[in-house]
Structures are given as structure tokens and as C-alpha cells.
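Sequence, please.
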């Protein structure tokens, strides 16, 4: 069970701090909730019922700075195989983005970045669907990295580039 002040990754909602564990009445039944506050979005609050296994399974402890550095420097993490069917690609990448596996998320970002560069080289643009997936994957990844490293999300890419050069 998670505790108040734990820093967690909650699927595509990003890094959140558990600010409270509270009981609320809903339809005549008392339910215990984790109250989550997204670290980089102070305009929202999420309530996750502690007895809802599907939702709680989307919660995991956020990575540490050392774990993140290890992932970034791991040369064995390559691109995913390109899925030609846009609908299948969208479904698979959304699953990864919402699943919260950081290594798979890095692979999605790498794959979409490679595709973006190939499209640019051919004088084309990425499909809007791929752009949106790329943006969503980057946001989730950068939020977790920023929280662990104590930096802002817009500082993550330069930090990653610096790590890869060293």
C-alpha cells in the first residue's frame, strides 16, 4: 500500500504525489481513495479508489535519478518495430503510454523520433496521430525524469542529450 507523500507514476497522468488517503461516501458506501496531485499540473486532483485493482495497478513508484540515468545510457534499448497499420500502431503505443513502463516509453519516443526524422528527410510530415502520440509519450517520460532529477520538464531533453554525449 502506498503512503501519503509517496511520489508515483500514474499511467498517462504522469508523476503525482499522494497528498492524502481519505474516505468518502459514494452511493451509500464508504470508499477509501488515494488523492493524487500531479507534480507538473497543479490544476487537477485525481482520486483513485484503493480497492479498484485496475486503477491501482496503473500506480507505481516513480523512478529515481540513478534508475533514469541507467535507462538513458542503456544502448540495448532500441526502437520498436514500426507498425504500418496506423490504427494498430495507435492502439499499441497508447497501451504503452498508459502502462507506465519507462523502458517501453523510451522505445516509443525513440521510434517516433526516428520516424519523424525519416519523414523530414523525405520532405514529409508525420501523421497527426503520430505527432499526438509522440507528444503524449514525451510528456509522460519528461515529467517522470524531471521529477526524479529535480528539474523542469523542458530541461529534460538537454539533460538527456548531455548524458548521451558523456
Amino acid at each position: 500500500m502506498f503512503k501519503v507523500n509517496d511520489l508515483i507514476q500514474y499511467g498517462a497522468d504522469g508523476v503525482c504525489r499522494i497528498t492524502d488517503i481519505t474516505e468518502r461516501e459514494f452511493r451509500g458506501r464508504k470508499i477509501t481513495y488515494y488523492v493524487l496531485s500531479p507534480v507538473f499540473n497543479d490544476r487537477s486532483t485525481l482520486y483513485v479508489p484503493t480497492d479498484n485493482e485496475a486503477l491501482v495497478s496503473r500506480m507505481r513508484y516513480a523512478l529515481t535519478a540513478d534508475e533514469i540515468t541507467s535507462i538513458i545510457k542503456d544502448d540495448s534499448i532500441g526502437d520498436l518495430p514500426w507498425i504500418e497499420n496506423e490504427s494498430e500502431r495507435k492502439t499499441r503505443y497508447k497501451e504503452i503510454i498508459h502502462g507506465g513502463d519507462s523502458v517501453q516509453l523510451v522505445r516509443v519516443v525513440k521510434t517516433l523520433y526516428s520516424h519523424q526524422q525519416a519523414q523530414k528527410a523525405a520532405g514529409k510530415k508525420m501523421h497527426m496521430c503520430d505527432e499526438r502520440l509522440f507528444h503524449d509519450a514525451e510528456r509522460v517520460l519528461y515529467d517522470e525524469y524531471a521529477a526524479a532529477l529535480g528539474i523542469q520538464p523542458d530541461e529534460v531533453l538537454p539533460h538527456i542529450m548531455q548524458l548521451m554525449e558523456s
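The chain is about 50% helix and 20% strand.
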